[in-house]
C-alpha cells in the first residue's frame, strides 16, 4: 500500500454553531474556533472538519446553502476563515471543509430562477417532474419527512428533494451545473482549504423514479471528473465522501487510489445497527457478535485497496457514550476509554466528534417541544398527526434525535458551560458541571488525556496504521478482541463491552507484551489480563 501523508492523522469534527462563541451572540464562530486551537493542538489532531460554513437560511444548520462563495455571517468573514487556516497551519492542522453538493437551499439564486421559469438556464440545474397538484409523481419518503416531490405552483411542476423541502437536489446530469461546482471548489482550494468532506455524495445519481441509484456507474464518472477539475489539481489534499448507502464493493472502488475518486469514505453500516435514525426509528436489537462481524468485514474488506474512516458518531447521531458505552457516573469514563481503544486500534482514519474526547452524553429533555433540529421537528409533527402520544414521541426523540450531539461544547463550569457569554442558540446539557474541558485537563486520568495518548500512539506505531486485522475470540459474547500485524510486529486489542467482568480464553501469550494503553490503573501484563474488569480495555504490543 502506498503511504500517504494523512495516514497517521486523526481528524476532529467541529460543529461550529455549538463549539465556541467569541462575541456573545450565542452562536459559535470562527474566532471561537481560533481561540481553541491550542486545545486541539494539545490533543494532537491533524485536521479539523468544520460543518458547512457557507451562507444559508439554516433550515438544516448550513446543510442548505444559499451562496457557495459567501461565509455565513454568524460564523464570521472570509478574513476570519483565512486567519483560521493560517493559525491551523502554524499548528500542523489542516482545515477540512464540508461541501454540500447533492442539493442547495431553496433560497439559492439558482433555485429561485429555476422555480420561476421552465425555459431559463437554471431550470435544469434541479430535478423536475410533471404532475398535477393532487397527483405527485411516484416517489419515496424524503429523509426529513414527507414525499421527495414538492409542488411548485408557479411553473406547475414538482422538484425532487432527498432531504427537506428546503433542500432541492441539484441535477448532476447538467454539465454547466457541475462545472459551476468545480469552479467553486477551486475557489476554496485557493483559500488554503486542504480537506473536503463531501456531504451525502452517494445520493447525487438518481434512479429516475424518485430514489437514489446506488448501483449506477455514473457516480464514479462524476467523482473522477470532479477530481480532474478540482481536487486532483493539487497533490496535498484529503477528500472524504459521506456515502451513507455504500456497500463494501462500492467503497473499494470509491477509495481505490488508482481511480482518483475519493481518499476515503464514511460508511454507515454500524450507524444503523440499532435502528437509530433508520427505517421507522424503532429500536433494533443486535449482539456484540453482530458488531464485531460488521467491523471485521470493513477492516478486512478494505485491507488491500481503499481506506476506512473510523468513527462511532457525528453531528447526525446520538452521543457515542450514551449509545455504545455506559453514560452513568460509575462507568462513563472507563467505557468511553474502552470505545476509544476499540476504534483507535483499527486501520483507517479516526474522526473524533467534538465533546466525545471529554465524554459528553445525550441530552435529556422532558418535552418533545424542546427539539430544534429540522429532522426532529418534522418527525414530531408527523407523529402528532398520526396520533402518537407525547410520551411515545419523546421516547423516540430521546433515543434518535440529532440534537443529542448538538448541545454546546462544555468548556468549564461557568454559565452555559463557558460556550457563550450571551444566550446560547441551544442550551448546554445540564451535566456540564461534571463534564467539561477544564476539569478534564486537570485530571491526568481523564478521557481527554487518554485520547491524546491514542492519537500519539498512531503517530509512533506503523503497525496501527498498516497492520492487517484479525478478529480474536470471535464467539465471545462480551469481549471484542483483535490483532493487528505488520512485518512481524503485533498489537493485540482487547475490549470488554460489558458491565460485568469477563473471562477470556487464553489463546495467546500476552504476558511478555508491552502495554501501549490500558484503561485501568496499573500497566503490568500478567495473568489478570484474562479476567477483564467491567469495560476494561488493553492495547498490547507482543
Ligand atoms: O447527512 C446525510 C444523512 O442524513 C445521513 O445521516 C444518513 O442517515 C446516512 O447517509 C445514511 O444513509 C448529511 C449531513 O451529515 C446532515 O447533517 C445533513 O442534514 C444531510 O446530509 C443533508 O445535507
Ligand atoms: Ca458568535
Descriptive key words:
alpha-amylase activity, binds calcium ion, 15 helices, five-stranded antiparallel sheet, binds 1-O-alpha-D-glucopyranosyl-D-fructose, TIM Barrel, Immunoglobulin-like, 542 residues, Oligo-1,6-glucosidase, domain 2, eight-stranded parallel sheet
Write the layout of secondary structure elements.
Blueprint: E1 11-14, H1 30-35, H2 37-43, E2 47-50, E3 54-55, E4 67-71, H3 78-90, E5 94-100, H4 109-114, E6 128-129, E7 149-152, E8 157-160, H5 175-190, E9 195-199, H6 218-229, E10 238-242, H7 248-254, E11 264-266, H8 288-301, E12 309-310, H9 320-324, H10 332-344, E13 349-353, H11 374-385, H12 390-400, H13 437-442, H14 447-460, H15 462-466, E14 468-472, E15 479-486, E16 489-496, E17 502-503, E18 514-518, E19 531-532, E20 537-541
Helix pairs in contact: 10-14, 11-12
Question: Based on helices, strands and strand pairing, what is the structural class?
Answer: alpha/beta
Structural domain tally: 3
Helix content: 25-40%
Bound molecule kinds, no repeats = 1-O-alpha-D-glucopyranosyl-D-fructose, calcium ion
Unreliable residue runs: none
Shape: globular
Task: Tell me the number of strands.
Answer: 20
Radius of gyration equals: 23 Å
**Tally of separate helices:** 15
Could you please say which CATH topology of the largest domain applies here?
TIM Barrel
What is the CATH class of the largest domain? Alpha Beta
CATH superfamily of the largest domain: Glycosidases
Euclidean distance between termini CA atoms:
23 Å
Mean pLDDT: 96
Share in β-strands: 15-25%
Main sheet characteristics: 8 strands, parallel
Strand order of the largest sheet: 11-10-9-5-2-1-13-12
CATH second-level architecture of the largest domain: Alpha-Beta Barrel
